Amino acid sequence: DSNELSEILNYVNSQQGKMGVHGKYFGKAKGKNVVLVSLESTQNFVINRKLHGQEITPFLNDLADDSFYFDNFYHNTGQGKTSDAEFLIDNSLYGLPRGAVYTTNANNEYNATPEIVKDHGYTPVSLHGNHASFWNRDVMYQSLGYDHFYSKDSYNVTDENSVNYGLKDIPFFEQSMPIVKNLDKPYYAKFITMTNHYPYITNDKSMEMIDPADTGDGSVDRYFQTVRYEDESIKKFFQLMKENGEYKDTIFVLYGDHYGISENHNRAMSEILGKEIRPFEHVQLQKVPLIIHIPGMKGKTMDTVGGEIDLKPTILHLLGIDEKNDVQFGTDLFAKNRESATIFRDGSMVTDKYVYAAEGNKCYDKSSGEEIDMKTCAPLKDKADKELQYSDKVVYGDLLRFLDSEQKENQDKKDTEASQ
Ligand code: GP9
Ligand code: MN
Predict the structure, then answer these.
(1) φ, ψ of residue 250 in degrees (nearest 5)
(2) 46 Cβ partners below 8 Å, 6+ apart?
(3) pLDDT of 326-381, one tens digit each?
(4) CB-neighbour burial class of residue 56 (10 A; exposed 0-12, middle 13-18, buried 19+)
(5) Per the residue annotation, which of 42, 57, 77, 82 is the catalytic one?
């Protein structure tokens, strides 16, 4: 009920750097278009790494140099995979402990970024070359406030331009351009890539811009090829945005949605990384790239620890939008005093000093990777459990229904205090 919501609001508001704490770039992208790019199954270890002497992500590497590149950024997803990432980013709430919130709670009341930016004159849309009903997106997007979903029906999808789940990333971006050009500005447009999806298939020589790895584990080996292809598609996308005059009025937020290589492939991954994969390395492999590119702004590598949960406040603050009465579990990644930390859906937690791995209940020093006494990580474990429980209460109880009356009550209280 609304009492539960008050308790949760107290929790989020008492967190270090939560709610209303601005980074120094507050309002720096005010009125700009926002382009989000979901990089399918893209883990951070491919960034700035070479295979056979060749860069795996040459374009993203260059882009990262010219952007805010977060190299301690983790996904927070669970079984809902891509849809969990979308949910986290638009709501700053966690996905569910099991199942996908996109399918189980699509009719809840939310206060999502698309709906918020719409109130500030934005056109919020999503673009993706798969069926509209996959992950129940067509239903959930209405609750999140998207104006339109350009899905498979909006694209020319043929056998030649498809692989695996459907439309390949390069034709996806090419065919998206006429759509983007016709959107009312400013827009908040989410592009969801798809080609770099398990089991990492190419069906055309021109897609193979790097040789596969040679661990003998087919999906790990092919992963590098489809990541390389995805990188090429992003390069193409930026070229097209420039050619069409969309680039300079737009900020770009590119993020890896979740891991691509599961624990079943630890043998091959340890060969790639040249080290054993303990729970510590497993946690570190949950890093995904986050690149925030703002044309005209100088690049910087940011080492703050964060996750998808932090993108809603980060993006809203860049646009100069302050949501004071909202349930956000994340914080503005640019805020100086934010707690440098993130929580995984399985209850693991990473800070700038420690790594708590829920699997195996182990504690590590973050910089050395040395296993340390679990006592040190006990507060991390407790915090992760508490925060996840609060988030689950919001979703299961559909508590954002009470947000408006809660806001009014708080305002009434303040008014009363002020008049005394
Ligand atoms: C499907 C695509 C993949 O439309 O977004 O979803 P995933 O399997 O990665 O969750
Ligand atoms: Mn995915």
Answers:
(1) -130, 145
(2) 56, 57, 224, 227
(3) 999 999 999 988 999 999 999 999 999 999 999 999 999 999 999 999 999 999 99
(4) buried
(5) 82
> Which three-class secondary structure state does DSSP give residue 54?
strand
In single-letter form, the type of residue at position 321 comes to: I
- Whether the CB-CB separation of 329 and 94 falls below 8 Å is answered with yes
Helix (H) or strand (E) segment spanning residue 104: helix 101-104
Look up residue 167 and give its two tokens.
Answer: 């439309």
Distance 81 CA to ligand 1 centre (A): 7
Q: Is 416 among the catalytic positions?
A: no
List all residues 6 or more positions away from 82 whose beta carbon is below 8 Å from its beta carbon. Answer: 38, 40, 135, 192, 257, 258
Instruction: Find out whether the beta carbon of 165 lies less than 6 Å from any atom of ligand 1.
Output: yes
Tens of pLDDT along 45-96? 999 999 999 999 999 999 999 999 999 999 999 999 999 999 999 999 999 9
Q: How far is the CA of 36 from the centre of ligand 2 (A)?
A: 14
Give me 60's structure tokens: 């993203």
- Could you tell me if the ipTM is greater than 0.85? yes
User: How much is the pTM?
Assistant: 0.96
Q: Is 130 in the pocket of ligand 1 (CB under 6 A)?
A: yes
Q: Which residue's CA is minimally distant from atom 4 of ligand 1?
A: 130
